[in-house]
Prior knowledge:
By secondary structure, this protein is mainly α. It is built from 12 helices and no strands.
Amino acid sequence: MQSNVPAYLTYPKQFTPYKWYKPLLVGLLTIVFCLLFSFGVTLIGTVIGARQGYDVLKMINGGYNTMDVYTIHGAIISLGSVAVFLPALLIGNRIVNSRSFSSYSSSRGGFDFGVFFKTLAGALVCIGIPLTVQTLLTEKATGNIRFTVIGIILCVILVPLQCFAEEYIFRGLIMQAFGSWIRIPVIPIILQTILFAAGHPYNLVGVISISVTGIALGICTVVTNGLEASCAAHTVNNLAAFLFAGFGFGAIRSQVDVFSMVMTVCCMGLYIGFLVFAKKKLGWFDKVKKDDAAQFNAKISRRAQPVPVPADK
Length: 313
């Protein structure tokens, strides 16, 4: 089935205000707002934790080994400080105003929740079930439930937001920026993966594993011309890992073993195969909701037109 959906990587160039330096401006503004918002969220979590006698600095400095997504303050700091990347990008893009925010979601006319929920089902089968089997076979139940009641509610709410935020930054802003500069698709995928892996403090095996994930999520985005599939896979992976750890099955660690890395490779490979099948045989990613580039360009054109001056009577 032939698709006429514009290529996601080069989609920013469909907008008439696009200039090569504008992704850099958006990136710089996004970083500024990320720092401001993350500081504010972390400060709120720190105050809440301090009132409960919790050593927040120890949690922050310990990497994944001391990561806390199970309490109110822990979820706010660990997940909320990343989730704010999304509004930071929204504001940064609005200030530069060189493209619609929906163009980060896809080149099919914005974020398609129908596509998201279909790929979410695929991610549950390809990633969620294998991860569940792996955890039950390799991790012993300790009986140590880490979650507080409000903590688990916040975790379930904030994990998808955290995953979406990372996808919009790495597979959206960064990968599209490189894609608009470099014509060879594999290079933007690799470059965003390097930055993605740099933000995860794992051991060597863990860095390889997260790099595989970054490449796979980049491929998912290119195959589907949107972020829905990568958001689905990221959400399933993180939510499963945090929920198991919170209910006493293992823990989140900076040390990743070879078996877990191999499982990551297999699950991501299976998921990409599923997406390719859904694209070629089912046409899931061929529908264009709206031509947001044409709408944005038309709006810019109308604003640029001179206001007619009424003739003197």
